[in-house]
């Protein structure tokens, strides 16, 4: 099957009321685990690659592994998405490389550390929308900075996240500003800040509404009901995997993630894309630790890696089921990116006409 755009996939998800997990990919084992799980439950998938993934695997390897997935699982719709693009140039490189969707993260400057001003965010995001839509590629923007409402800090071990302490205002996306941002940039999906952060250390206790602002999703969705919302930092940090890691020589202090039930509440309120990286990391490293410690005589790495694939596959399957994307693969007929480009142009024209009918020759 051809790769599909994020816009096509999320339009389908919105129409049928489900959410799609977006899993980060870095190597063959992660890709196979995600794809096998998608096959198990007939779900469409979003495979997303960060700048760190490109550095680790190299762009040609990522591209060919995703092509290999499309060949191996021809009936599973796959969206290949660039995670946290730091600049229009990086998004442009991803488009050239065959990505069907890019994230322009203009909430931070291109060092991916310094919170950016609103005008900067609008300018770089708009620029990427113009470039990407011309070739039918979708764009995710971000408004508000990811970080903890407990500490004001972004996840500490992460490569993309604000440095220093942020105010509550910076950490929560404002619904009114979100409406203005979407209208002025034309993004297909919007990442919002609601108290989640990247990495394993999100919450020091099981999160409640004080530190995980699900009600903010509701307020944003009420204001822009037609915009697909994206939740970043949405790993649930399974306590079982923390136990396995601790029992086999690892050391991870007490920490909590985003409960799956809260994500489901988000999906009931317009969240269509749910970013998950850490959970796969935890499941894979926990299962690798266990396999290596319980089989000291084994030295074929495939035996250990097969355990890691099994663990990640089962985690992905749970998320496909919980978010409602399971069973949807067969209901999506991929549209060529040319068609998506034409659609984007038509939508843009209609929006401009609404704003200034006279200028568009229909006033
Ligand atoms: O948001 C993410 C990638 O963009 C991943 O979040 P986690 O660290 O919670 O898995
Ligand atoms: O943005 C966060 C993702 O978890 C990607 O992480 P990474 O930059 O270490 O690849
Ligand atoms: Zn960001
Ligand atoms: Zn993210």
Describe the structure.
With 363 residues, the chain is of the alpha/beta class. It has a single domain (6-346), classed as Aldolase class I (TIM Barrel, Alpha-Beta Barrel), CATH 3.20.20. The protein is built from 14 helices and eight strands. α2 (28-40) crosses α13 (301-323), α10 runs parallel beside α12 and α12 (278-294) packs antiparallel against α13 (301-323). The longest helix has 23 residues, at 301-323. The model has no long low-confidence stretch (mean pLDDT 96). The structure holds 1,3-dihydroxyacetonephosphate (13P), glyceraldehyde-3-phosphate and zinc ion (2 copies). One zinc ion (ZN) is lined by residues 84, 198, 232, 275.
Write the layout of secondary structure elements.
Layout (H helix, E strand, L loop, with lengths): L5 H11 L3 E5 L3 H13 L4 E5 L1 H7 L1 H14 L5 E8 L2 H9 L4 E4 L13 H16 L4 E6 L24 H4 L3 H11 L3 E4 L21 H10 L4 E4 L7 H9 L12 H8 L3 E6 L1 H17 L6 H23 L13 H19 L8
Parallel strand pairs: 1-2, 1-8, 2-3, 3-4, 4-5, 5-6, 6-7, 7-8
Helix pairs in contact: 2-13, 3-4, 5-6, 8-9, 10-12, 12-13
The structure holds 1,3-dihydroxyacetonephosphate, glyceraldehyde-3-phosphate and zinc ion (2 copies).
The site of one zinc ion has 4 residues, from loops.
Family: Belongs to the class II fructose-bisphosphate aldolase family.
Catalytic activity: beta-D-fructose 1,6-bisphosphate = D-glyceraldehyde 3-phosphate + dihydroxyacetone phosphate
Cofactor: Zn(2+)
């Amino acid at each position: 099957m051809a790769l599909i755009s994020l816009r096509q996939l999320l339009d389908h998800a919105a129409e049928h009321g489900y959410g799609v997990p977006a899993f980060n990919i870095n190597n063959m084992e992660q890709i196979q685990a995600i794809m096998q799980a998608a096959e198990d439950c007939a779900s469409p998938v979003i495979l997303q690659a960060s700048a760190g993934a490109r550095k680790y695997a190299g762009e040609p390897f990522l591209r060919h592994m995703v092509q290999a997935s499309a060949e191996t699982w021809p009936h599973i719709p796959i969206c290949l998405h660039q995670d946290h693009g730091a600049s229009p140039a990086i998004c442009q490189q991803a488009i050239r490389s065959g990505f069907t969707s890019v994230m322009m993260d203009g909430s931070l400057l291109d060092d991916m550390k310094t919170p950016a001003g609103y005008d900067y965010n609008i300018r770089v995001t708009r620029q990427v929308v113009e470039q990407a839509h011309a070739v039918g590629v979708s764009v995710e923007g971000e408004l508000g900075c990811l970080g903890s409402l407990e500490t004001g800090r972004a996840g500490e071990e992460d490569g993309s996240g604000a440095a220093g302490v942020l105010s509550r205002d910076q950490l929560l996306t404002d619904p009114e500003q979100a409406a203005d941002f979407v209208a002025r940039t034309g993004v297909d999906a919007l990442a919002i800040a609601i108290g989640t952060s990247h990495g394993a250390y999100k919450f020091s206790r099981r999160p409640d509404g004080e530190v995980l602002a699900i009600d903010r999703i509701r307020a944003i969705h009420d204001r822009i009901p037609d915009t697909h919302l994206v939740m970043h930092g949405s790993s649930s940090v399974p306590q079982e995997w923390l136990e396995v890691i601790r029992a086999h020589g690892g050391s991870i202090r007490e920490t909590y993630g985003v409960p799956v039930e809260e994500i489901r509440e988000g999906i009931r309120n317009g969240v269509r894309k749910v970013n998950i990286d850490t959970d796969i990391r935890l499941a894979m490293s926990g299962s690798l630790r266990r396999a290596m410690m319980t089989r000291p005589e084994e030295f074929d790495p495939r035996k250990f890696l097969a355990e890691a694939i099994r663990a990640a596959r089962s985690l992905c399957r749970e998320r496909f089921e919980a978010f409602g994307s399971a069973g949807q693969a067969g209901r999506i007929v991929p549209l060529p990116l040319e068609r998506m480009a034409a659609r984007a142009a038509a939508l843009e024209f209609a929006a401009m006409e609404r704003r200034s009918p006279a200028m568009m020759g229909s006033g």
